[in-house]
Amino acid sequence: MGVVVRNLQKVVPLRRARLRKDVNTLRHILGIHKFDLGVVCVDNRRIQHINNIYRKKDEPTDVLSFPFHEGLRPGKMPCPLHRDELNLGDIFLGVEFVMRQCQEESTDLHEALTVVTAHGICHLLGYRHETEEEWSEMLQKESYILREYNRLTGQHLLPMMKPCHQERTLSHR
């Protein structure tokens, strides 16, 4: 199966082929190309609903990750026993939320979606940012992924995570 990209929103024009290509590049960098991954693009109403159900936060957000393999330690790969366990999980992208941020910051939507997707994949692989140590570890991983992505593509993407001494704005899982 590989990567499935579903666009369940109509607010923002989206090039799914480009997003799929970028996700496949991220999977290659991380060595997780044998694992299936779902990417679901949604509007503010839907991501707010999901965020409220699963995180008790009644607000839209940029990304929510739902790992197939619960309890993974950061840096450890899942060890599937069967073919149907070759699944990392699903990432819900709040495309409308990300678009509004891009408008405020004058940044490219598809580049921002790639960065947000990299962040979501980190969560699927067990990375968190609840403590300072986790924050630092996830920032390192996200920085590595995007450095490699930039090297392969010629882009200049930066992590959405900021060093822990800067203002934290991330509120998702």
UniProtKB/TrEMBL annotation:
PROSITE patterns: UPF0054. Its cofactor is Zn(2+). One of its GO terms (molecular function) is metalloendopeptidase activity. GO terms for biological process: rRNA processing. Keywords: Endonuclease, Hydrolase, Metal-binding, Nuclease, Zinc. InterPro entries: MetalPrtase_cat_dom_sf_prd, YbeY, YbeY_CS. It comes from the Eukaryota. The keyword Metal-binding applies. HAMAP family: Endoribonucl_YbeY. Belongs to the endoribonuclease YbeY family. This is YbeY metalloendoribonuclease. It comes from Hippocampus comes (Tiger tail seahorse).
